Amino acid sequence: MQVPMYIAAQLMGSILASGTLALMFKITKEAYFGTLPVESHLQSFAIEIVISFLLMFVISGVSTDNRAIGELAGLAVGMTIMLNVFVAGPISGASMNPARSIGPAIVKHVYKGLWIYIVGPLIGTIAGAFCYNLIRFTDKPLREITKTSSFLPSASKN
């Protein structure tokens, strides 16, 4: 029951935010705030799969693995998003989240290539989570592997 409610909340938030932007600003076709493929649909589809895979792989590593260093989780996720936007932004808009593309498309009635931003991130995130779980080779906590409980105290001693 939580997953459908989460999806509904994401979609409603995206639609409401897009509607607010559309009311506040005069949005022309050139200033469309949604995501559109720049080159071919296949190229945008492939890059959306790759960047969604990378994002989910990092999120799985820093948030679900008890061996990860929790103090740096936000930095790792944020840097992954920044890298994804720098690399894929000029190609596909770097959506990485279907709701981020569906909201503006519904509000402004621009549906060109919308399937890319729904199917690509779904494939990428499922593959990212699957691959991370596949390569987890031990259930030992990070403390036992590295003999420290945190990265930050050991870094400040040096």
UniProtKB/TrEMBL annotation:
GO cellular component: membrane
Species classification: Eukaryota, Viridiplantae, Streptophyta, Embryophyta, Tracheophyta
Pfam families cross-referenced by the UniProt entry: MIP
Gene3D superfamilies for the chain: Glycerol uptake facilitator protein
Family matches, as SUPFAM superfamilies: Aquaporin-like
Coiled coil: none
Localization (cell): Membrane
Protein name: Uncharacterized protein
Keywords carried by this UniProt record: Membrane, Transmembrane, Transmembrane helix, Transport
